[in-house]
Design a protein that fits this description.
Helix content: 40-55%
Largest sheet: 6 strands, parallel
Structural class: alpha/beta
CATH architecture of one domain: 3-Layer(aba) Sandwich
Distance between the termini: 46 Å
CATH class of one domain: Alpha Beta
CATH superfamily of one domain: HAD superfamily/HAD-like
Radius of gyration: 19 Å
Oligomer: single chain
Strand content: 5-15%
Length: 300
């Protein structure tokens, strides 16, 4: 699946950089930052096996004192409006309950999150492959009807942004991060509507800064978007952790920019991942409160 998607989309250069350019940026940045980390601290990279260890056991000595969280939007703070997706499909004669769509989404996203696919696609093309995968998980084949429904949803997304459901625990997590004194910066692959969208959802006041890849002209996993976010927010890589939901977009990109990363994995689908994983933002807040990432432990 990943190779078919990669070969089909790799031909399409876009304003955010070709697959080859992004790959070159990642290779150079990862090599440079790995050398810097090795000089600064012992990462004990072989001390854990069989999946991601608990966050407080991860070797995060390079993060001297946690000051800033970068947060992805989709999959971390907001998700697709599955009621709207259900209604669009029904309008074209395709039955798919909203709860079934939501249940299939995490598995579809995990299938999409492969290195070759991520490097060879951009966020826009990747998103609609993702919707086809959601339908495939439910046994719904591609057809003229599903294509028409997705085209309708795409038109809505371009105007309003389909990721309009605030995820469970998102507001609570943001509030908890605030009580911990953290700077909060949204660093998201988006379509130019994110700032207005966050205003509409009442999320803008809960964070300090919102960066939209379409506005900035570069998207994750290219480390340049993280570098822009660091410069814009005044944050330091050593005191910043990025929170995302796609390993090959968020974790790989953040590491290439010299940041640590946490993967939001509510269904436990990334057991082999070599990074910390959390089920939700409130769970991450509890880990930080307990001293993860160099934060000073605090009582509740």
């Amino acid at each position: 699946m990943a190779m078919r998607v990669a070969s089909r989309v790799a031909r399409d250069a876009n304003d955010h950089g070709t697959a080859a350019e992004i790959a070159a940026d990642l290779t150079t940045a990862v090599s440079t930052n790995d050398r810097h980390r090795a000089a600064k601290c012992d990462m004990n990279s072989d001390s854990h096996s069989g999946g991601a260890p608990p966050i407080r056991e991860m070797p995060y000595a390079c993060v001297v004192h946690l000051e800033t969280l970068f947060l992805d939007a989709g999959g971390v703070l907001v998700g697709p409006n599955w009621d709207r997706v259900r209604d669009a499909l029904a309008h074209h004669g395709v039955a798919a309950p909203a709860d079934a769509l939501a249940g299939a989404e995490l598995h579809a996203k995990r299938q999409l999150d492969e290195d070759g696919t991520i490097r060879a696609t951009n966020d826009g093309s990747r998103g609609w492959v993702y919707f086809h995968l959601v339908l495939e998980k439910l046994g719904i084949p591609r057809s003229a009807e599903t294509g028409a429904a997705l085209a309708e949803l795409h038109a809505y997304h371009q105007q309003r942004n389909l990721w309009e459901s605030v995820l469970p625990g998102a507001r609570e997590g943001l509030a908890a991060f605030r009580t911990l004194g953290l700077r909060l910066v949204v660093v998201s692959n988006a379509n130019g509507t994110l700032a207005a969208h966050f205003d509409r959802l009442g999320l803008t006041s809960a964070v300090d800064l919102v960066l939209d890849s379409q506005v900035e002209g570069v998207e994750k996993p290219n480390p340049r978007l993280f570098q822009i976010a660091l410069a814009r927010s005044g944050a330091s890589p050593d005191t910043t952790v990025h929170v995302g939901d796609l390993y090959h977009v968020d974790v790989v990109g953040a590491r290439a920019a010299g940041l640590r990363a946490v993967l939001v994995d509510p269904a436990g689908l990334y057991e082999e991942a070599d990074c910390p994983r959390v089920a939700s933002l409130p769970a991450l807040a509890e880990e930080i409160r307990a001293g993860a990432f160099g934060a000073t432990p605090r009582s509740a």
